[in-house]
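3.2 Worked example (two chains)
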Amino acid sequence: MKRGGILNRHLAGALAELGHGDGVLICDAGMPIPAGPRVVDLAFRAGVPSFAEVVEGLLAELVVEGATAATEVREANPGAAKLLDGHFPGPGLTLVPHERLKELSAGARLVVRTGEARPYANVLLRCGVFF
């Protein structure tokens, strides 16, 4: 058994398969999940695991060169907006209308569903390279 890091075998395996430019959607329990991408559903109950826990856990494991979230997050979920601003300052975070985020999510290679039950707690990460 792994000593640390991500222990969920489905998530650990999916992360190991990602390459440069691949998209990873981290979404709340209400986000429609597109057909096609691999899905790892971590939702246990409302709020568990939280969006923040999953974002921070995945950022510890991935190299990310950019992120996209819904413009609506600023007003509807200031906590998620603050979290994203903290991890992707300045040009690191692109904001698009929620409907556009859903369209972009269809191109993700991996979807990680959290138990988050607050609106617009979603982000699409673009993988980078470690060298």
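3.2.1 Second chain
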Amino acid sequence: MVNAVSVSAPVDQLPPVVDDDRLSEEVQLSLPVEGPAPPPIPPATLALAAQDVRMVLREQNEQSQILTTKLNILFVANGALLTSLSISRLLVSGSWFSLAEVLGFLVSFSLLMGAFLPRQVAVTPNLEDRKFLETYLALPEQDYQLQMLVNLSETYNANKQRLEDTSQSLKYAAYTIWGTTAIMLVHILVIYVATGSASGLT
């Protein structure tokens, strides 16, 4: 008959006793700590922000109207310049001045036409988008106002680039018209001096 012998492990090989409190503390420290939720935006602040953004958009619209007025003035100035060149027959004199005057007129007219041609204007909300009613009107009031502020900001940035391009075209056109006018005056002066010298010799 074989007697079962229970072999006990040595004391130094027994697994260490883990303190439950310490283990719970370590587990708690290893968990991610969530930060505090951002405070809600007061409705009065949202209303003021929307009012300020719309005021900036109105100023941008006024700037667009000012650029349109400048465009009309430069068109009139360029037409008057062409009329003066045609009446004085400077364009058909066959000199280098005539070539420079024709080139200046063509450049200024091209710049003005580039500023005149319509560009895509950003508008918000885009009523052509059929998802507008489905998406925006389903939002809560605060989320709707925040989304509209984002859309208005993007609209301002898109239209700002368009206005900057128009302003650059008008500035270069004004410089070109001024340079062509200066060339025309020098051309007239040269013809006057040449005519006076020829009459003096005769």
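3.3 Remarks
The mean pLDDT is 77.
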